[in-house]
Amino acid sequence: MFVLGGHVIQRREFLRAAALGALAGAGLTGCGSSGGGPDGDLRLVLCNHVWTTAIRERLPEFEQLSGRRVVVSTMTADQLSSTYNVKLNASAPDVDVMMYRPLQEQLLFARNGWLADLTDHVTGDTGYDWSDVQAGARERVTTEGRVFGVPIVTERPTLYYRRDLVPDGPPATLDELRETALRLHDPAAGMTGFAGRGQRNFAVSMFSSYLYSFGGDFVVDGRSGVATPEAVAAYSYYGGLLRDAGPLGVTNMSLEQITPIFAQGRAAFAIDADSVYLNFVDPETSLVGDRTGFAPFPAGPAGSRPFNIASWGLAVNAFSERRDVAWEFLRWATSPETVLALQRAGVPGARDSAWQDPDAGAAFPPDLAASMVAGSATGVPRDRPDVVQVGRARDIVGRPMVAAVLGEDVVAEAHDASEEFDEFLVRDARQRRIR
């Protein structure tokens, strides 16, 4: 007998429920010639992330429930992608559970036949309650009607601001943000009005919230949307904000460069993911953590439309020899009880029930929790083009943004990028079919 999330259950009952639907048609049984065999250790490959730290502390619980030893390898996001591309392309069975980015890798991995189909498992288990997972998060791990992963972490952009510099409260609109950032921008005194991502590829995800809030999108009716009036206005706004109120060298900056600028007290505002808020306010690295406030993404002409994404998920390697046990782990790690426990510890999860719990936001600063709730209510479930070759797409749609930062002709650059993106989308449509 074991206790899971406060509920007493029998080990045999747990294993039977966790392996529900373990049929060949579910894609979780099959052959394999190496990797330790069906009775070997369960091998997890995870990203260096706050979720990983939190779940590792709870692994003894799963090992006791399942009677299975768990071996964990952790890597950076870039190392993770490189490892998957090498191992999965070789049909390697020595990875069982994979932490991955649904928006970045789902289409490619599913098309290549690298992910086990979890549809029958998530939908056929009433105790797991798939309908409790946020609709946008479910959408991101579903391709051609089949579920290939389970979301574990959600994130939205939040407005980080210096309460001592804006005592009347944070700007509620993008126009107010620009006006206040310009007023506070004083490079001679070492103060930047606004710190934001400007590096072309990596800035696209954060720029998406501006695009949606101006009423635009990357793809409209199957065609490029980057040259629409709404998109051009968004590019011009964001590029102009970085050009006129941002730090020097901003076109080479991503999250790793802007967080220390803000944390060292050299920026009045920044907008970035809420899941990394400790990078901005940790007292060990930040000089302004006690003076930092959080607010929802400011409203544009179309309102406040930030991205609200499942930034990370778990999937099962289609070539694993332990696919049934791998599903047991996913079921446990993303159960309503575990997600609630992790969210109470400060990891924003993807289940509605966790967000509805009155204690779930206690681990976050109150204004940050309010920002998270607001972003979840009005957010868009993607922060980049929904394509197979995401990296190439981000390079294309990021070009007009860089042009705006540099003060170049945004309209001309947007039309040129739109033509290239249209050609890209035609090729992408041919690549999307799953094996």
Automatic annotation (TrEMBL):
UniProt xrefs under InterPro entries: Bact_solute-bd_prot1 (IPR050490), SBP (IPR006059)
Entries under PANTHER family matching the protein: ARABINOSE-BINDING PROTEIN-RELATED, DIACETYLCHITOBIOSE BINDING PROTEIN DASA
Annotated coiled-coil segments of the chain: none
Pfam families: SBP_bac_1 (PF01547)
Superkingdom of origin: Bacteria
Listed name of the protein: Carbohydrate ABC transporter substrate-binding protein (CUT1 family)
